[in-house]
Amino acid sequence: MFRKDVKSLTEILGQCLRENGLETPMLQTHVLESWDQVAGSMVARYTTDKYIRNQTLFVKIANPALRADLAMMKTQLVNKLNREAGAFVIADIRFC
Fold this sequence. Notes:
The chain is an alpha+beta fold. Helix content is 57%, strand content 18%. The chain is built from 5 helices and 3 strands, in the order αααββααβ. The protein has helices at 9-19, 23-39, 41-46, 64-72, 74-85, and strands spanning 47-53, 56-61, 92-95. The chain has a 3-stranded mixed sheet with strand order 1-2-3.
């Protein structure tokens, strides 16, 4: 017997993750891991800590001048990180 409601493995896995509440943590982890690539290696050297809380990415930057430069690029970084994750994961970035 052949079923007409055939789903791809990607759809089934996505649905399973969503139902078990694991999709958002997985996407947040992907955003955190892609920070070094999106921001660049120079910024990654000065990044000491990063975490996500309430759709806001908090990034600790050791260099005050770099922190000010990144604050001006906030919107671009948010868009690039969400594009990298393939979903709307973060709405804002705070540099401390």
